[in-house]
Amino acid sequence: QKEVEQNSGPLSVPEGAIASLNCTYSDRGSQSFFWYRQYSGKSPELIMFIYSNGDKEDGRFTAQLNKASQYVSLLIRDSQPSDSATYLCAVTRAGGTSYGKLTFGQGTILTVHP
Amino acid sequence: DVKVTQSSRYLVKRTGEKVFLECVQDMDHENMFWYRQDPGLGLRLIYFSYDVKMKEKGDIPEGYSVSREKKERFSLILESASTNQTSMYLCASSPSAGVYGYGYTFGSGTRLTVV
């Protein structure tokens, strides 16, 4: 089992729809969860992070965390063609000897079509 | 904003050459990382460093070494480049991990082709 698994995609949604990206992780000691967006040929950029169970909203983005189920998701409301990218889920134990090292999922390719 | 600068955007090297990839960050971050990214394989950690002169192997260190002589600079060295090291190389940095940790800031990447 991979340490961090994302829905395989690619995911295609129409403009204006909600895109739902999912991620599960195997390490119960994980404490922090990150979503990165990566445009083709570019490096990943951080768009959301979440530490506590529940929802965290930032503009059109909502991150959801359920530690009991070891599940984290990213919702993108009112999807735009500019949201078309690969989305990477990353987790870390944080603290101690983790040195903040992130473990990444394989990524989900999202395409938003007009 | 934190800036992580990678010295080259594109590099073409010959098999057997010694290759240096440089990464500099300007926000006094303790942690620095080198990843490679390949289609279908995702991001794979090569080496990381949590302090000057300190380094730890990641998941795929074979064929690579690193150097961190100054806090702001983390270099990746391909001792003898091979074609299977053709890849996108990404450097990242983060502050020392607190209770919850921090995300990385990535450099713009170096696309290395070994011929």
Quaternary arrangement of the chains shown? Answer: heterodimer
Using the alpha-carbon principal axes, give the shape of chain A. Answer: globular
Q: List the uncertain runs of chain B.
A: none
Helical fraction of chain B equals under 10%
Mean pLDDT figure of chain A:
92
Q: Greatest interface and its residue counts?
A: A-B, 27 and 26 residues
Element-level helix/strand string of chain B = EEEEEEEEEEE
Number of continuous helical runs of chain A: 0
Could you tell me the strand content of chain B as a percent range?
A: over 45%
Write down how many β-strands of chain B occur, each being a DSSP E stretch of 2 or more residues: 11
Q: Helix count of chain B?
A: 0
How many DSSP E strands of chain A? 11
Largest sheet data of chain A: 6 strands, mixed
Calculate the mean pLDDT score of chain B and round it: 93
Summarize the structure.
The complex is a heterodimer of chains A (114) and B (115). In chain A, the strands form 2 sheets. In chain A, strands 2, 4, 5, 9, 10 and 11 form a 6-stranded mixed beta sheet that branches. A 5-stranded antiparallel beta sheet of chain A has the order 1-3-8-7-6, with no helix packed on it. Chain A has strands at residues 4-6, 11-14, 19-25, 32-38, 45-50, 54-58, 61-66, 71-76, 85-92, 103-104, 108-113.
